[in-house]
Amino acid sequence: MPIKNKNVQIEFGTGDISVRIGCMGDKSFGAVQFVEIDPLPIGEHVKADEKSIIGIDDAPVTFIFNKIESLDVVINQLQKLRDKMDDKANKEKEAGTKPVSDEKAGEILR
Questions:
Q1: What are 23-73's pLDDT values in tens digits?
Q2: Which of 17, 52, 65, 102 is the 20 to 30 Å CA partner of 90?
């Protein structure tokens, strides 16, 4: 079974999650790792050094991609989410209202 932990949640938005990427030398798979760090401005680039390199099993959360198509699916879904969040924020700004929960936020993505 490819999902090893049944309920892993990461809350983004405070600058305390490092998103790291890596690829095997033979390009047989790639990975995205999420590691908790001291807060930084969101999007600030942190240069990797020898001390910060971690193994594939050392991050609390790792996405492993064996096929580019799988990576494309995740990128596509994240872009859809970004578009929804941006559209909702723009509508609320125009209307001068506070954020309201989105009933479709729990839609099943495949």
A1: 888 988 999 999 999 999 999 988 877 777 788 888 999 999 999 999 999
A2: 17
Report d(CA 35, CA 62) in Å as an integer: 9
CA distance 29 to 4: 18
Per-position DSSP letters for 23-81, written without gaps between them: E-TT-S-EEEEEEE-S---TT------GGG---TTTSSEEEEESSHHHHHHHHHHHHHH
Q: What is the torsional sign of CA 65, 39, 8, 61?
A: positive
Report DSSP state, residue 62: E
pTM above 0.85, yes or no: no
